[in-house]
Amino acid sequence: MQTRLRVQGGGSGEPLLVLLHGLGATGDVWAGWRPLLARKWPGRWLAPDLPGHGGSPPLAAYTFDGFAAAVAGVVQPGSRVVVLGHSLGGVVGLALAGGSFAVPVQAVIGLGIKVSWTDEDLDRAQAVARRPPAWFASRDEAAARYLRVSGTRLPLAICGSPAWPACSPPMITPWTRG
Domains, the chain, ranges and CATH? Predict the structure, then answer.
């Protein structure tokens, strides 16, 4: 499968750390880790936007293996890989490590993974995946939706806001939800 993903990365050498975000987020959620990775991680790192998120095109159908195949497409063959994934990203990391892809995953660290999926859960997830994107009139409206859906109660630093004035260009424009 060849799905062109938006990928951010840095470092050099091995092992390769693949940082996978959760549902509705982008690889930008790992931006705060860059200084730590530059100082402490011995190899390269990649933070892709999963298909249908941020700057990555959607898949025809969404499955964990479909996401994993897209991620496998941005990993150089033969690279020793460690995956750090949040929520959906953790599940994608486990699928990537499952042996169906030519990616030698040494370890998967998953944060906030839903590990038990009923048929009803899967049906509900597929229904959400089939919905068209919704457009928001403002950053504030998009941020409020994100906070409600993600369950986050902390303030959200938005590019261009007083909390994060120096970032340019804006990380997400126009504001959409999938």
Answer: 7-131 (3.40.50.1820), 133-178 (no CATH)
